[in-house]
Write a structure and sequence with these properties.
The complex is a heterodimer. By secondary structure, chain A is an alpha/beta fold. Chain A is built from 4 helices and 4 strands. Chain B is globular, with a radius of gyration of 24 Å. The chains are: A alpha/beta, B mainly alpha.
């Protein structure tokens, strides 16, 4: 499963990325995660299975959704409580759920 | 407070976020942000040319004008790079050829500057209007170029090549009519009617730049940014869409003055002022809160403090904003909003009275605040003192609210 995390500058998502990677390693799941800034998003999105949007850019959800849907990739909004160093498990679960719904 | 935060989330945030997502403002933001690496590296040559150590500065002085060449060609041409970036982003958002959009925007901007014939050198472009001072002209001309391109493309007024012609060739022909339209229109206005578009736009936006440097002009973005963040929205990204051109214009006048050897710079509030003296640890000056959390008796807050310390030192504070959380938290949102207002006023006053040097170097925003402030002021140790004073102040402001919240968290922890 390939997850793309998107925020404003790609900085804070890289912290969340580590949390997800750590949890995935613990659960021995094959997960690849990448963090993207808003400007990198368009180029990177096509290589992923699912897009998760950071809460602080949720006002841009429509913009991300439109681009991702062109490639048939589902998008989800990360819950504020899960967006931090301890949110790995929640985000993994959310990504899986989004993929199942497709 | 709860009611107030609800109001921010439901009433203030949606229209502001919508405004920031407006196509043209987004293009301005992305276009200018794309030039930042050049500005950051370019402005560092200013420090090299006049280092903070007097003895060293004296030795370097004879070579200063040579050291400043990369600065002049990066920061000094800021508007030129921005014009291309804005045109590119705007064309892309319309699904037009972004390369054509960027080039036409660049051409439109250059064409409002008249070349001068200088003896022995030939024709030269005066650089004065191509730096930060020309930023607003660059924005308007980029809009003009891309809107013309769009108008002609939508109405299919372009030269279409028959099928089989390579795409790159076809594309160059498609841009012919827009290029002709743009060049002729600007030629008529600038040369035949002799209207100085550059100056006209500059004068139009001058009041805005002056206002941006006033205390009110500092407090309005500070308050809006913390309000938006307390609703969990990236405040700087939203407010910056509108304020960034003003901050860059202020920065440019300061860099030019510094490069000319001025001791006291004209402006207080270019972006580094906010970044290093107010947003210490991230918007809301949350480094103080992180430090308080490290000492907490609440297990959760202590762990969060540990995990947030390193990002906090680098001014990344999403872990605290969403983790503590500060977002929609009626207790912690109060110091989050009030603290920066107080440090903003104090830092502003300190610079009005020249107790601390004014910022003119753009350093990467992920540097620790004392280092960033030192670099931004071209190596003023008093800037470091001001940062430390501000950290102490915001710690005091956070403390009572933190204690109330900590007690609440500990009660929850013992219950579960």
């Amino acid at each position: 499963m390939k997850i793309l995390l998107v925020c404003s500058g790609g900085m804070s998502t890289s912290i969340v990325l580590k949390a997800v990677e750590k949890k995935a390693a613990e659960l021995k799941e094959d997960v690849y995660v990448e963090a993207a800034s808003t400007t990198q998003f368009e180029e990177r999105v096509k290589d992923f299975d699912v897009v998760l949007i950071a809460p602080q850019v949720r006002h841009r959800k429509q913009f991300f959704e439109e681009i991702a849907s062109k490639h048939g990739i589902p998008t989800g909004l990360i819950e504020p409580q899960a967006y931090g160093p301890f949110g790995g498990e929640k985000i993994l679960r959310q990504a899986k759920k989004l993929l199942e719904e497709v | 407070m709860e009611f107030f935060l609800k109001w921010v989330e439901e009433k203030l945030m949606p229209p502001m976020a919508k405004l920031a997502e407006q196509r043209h403002l987004r293009a301005v933001r992305d276009g200018i942000v794309a030039t930042l690496p050049l500005i950051i590296v370019g402005s560092f040559f200013l420090i090299v040319a006049s280092p903070p150590i007097p003895a060293l500065a004296e030795k370097i002085q004879p070579y200063a004008s040579q050291i400043l060449i990369p600065f002049r060609l990066s920061v000094g041409l800021m508007a030129l790079y921005a014009a291309h970036g804005i045109g590119y982003s705007l064309a892309k958002s319309y699904n037009l050829d972004p390369v054509a959009g960027g080039l036409l925007a660049l051409a439109s901007f250059i064409m409002i500057t008249l070349p001068q014939n200088v003896e022995k050198i030939g024709f030269v472009l005066p650089m004065g209007g191509l730096g930060g001072a020309g930023l607003f002209a660059a924005i308007i001309m980029a809009f003009f170029a891309v809107e013309v391109l769009r108008f002609l493309t939508v109405r299919k007024i372009t030269i279409k090549m028959p099928e089989g012609v390579p795409e790159s060739v076809a594309r160059s022909f498609e841009a012919l009519i827009p290029a002709a339209a743009i060049m002729v229109i600007i030629y008529i206005v600038r040369v035949m009617l002799n209207i100085n578009i550059q100056e006209l736009i500059m004068n139009l936006f001058k009041p805005l730049v002056t206002a941006g440097d006033s205390l009110i002009g500092v407090l309005v973005p500070v308050i809006l940014i913390t309000l938006l963040w307390s609703a969990g929205i990236h405040g700087v990204s939203v407010v910056g869409s509108i304020a960034r051109p003003i901050w860059m214009a202020l920065l440019d006048e300061n860099t030019q003055a510094a490069a000319a050897g001025a001791k006291i710079l004209p402006h207080i509030a270019p972006e580094p002022f906010f970044q290093w003296f107010i947003w210490i640890g991230g918007s809301g000056a949350t480094l103080s809160l992180v430090l308080l959390m490290l000492t907490s008796k609440s297990r959760y807050l202590k762990n969060l403090g540990k995990a947030s310390l390193l990002p906090g030192v680098c001014n990344i504070n999403e872990p605290v904003i969403f983790g503590a959380p500060i977002m929609l938290n009626p207790i912690l949102a109060i110091p989050f909003i009030i603290g920066p207002v107080i440090t903003a006023v104090i830092s502003y006053i300190a610079m009005v009275f020249n107790l601390v040097g004014r910022p003119y170097v753009l350093a990467p925003w992920t540097l620790p605040a004392p280092i960033g402030a030192y670099l931004a002021t071209g190596g003023d140790w008093r800037a470091v003192v001001l940062v430390l004073v501000n950290i102490a102040l915001t710690t005091i402001i956070y403390y009572p609210f933190f204690k109330v919240y900590e007690r609440k968290m500990m009660e929850e922890e013992t219950e579960s």
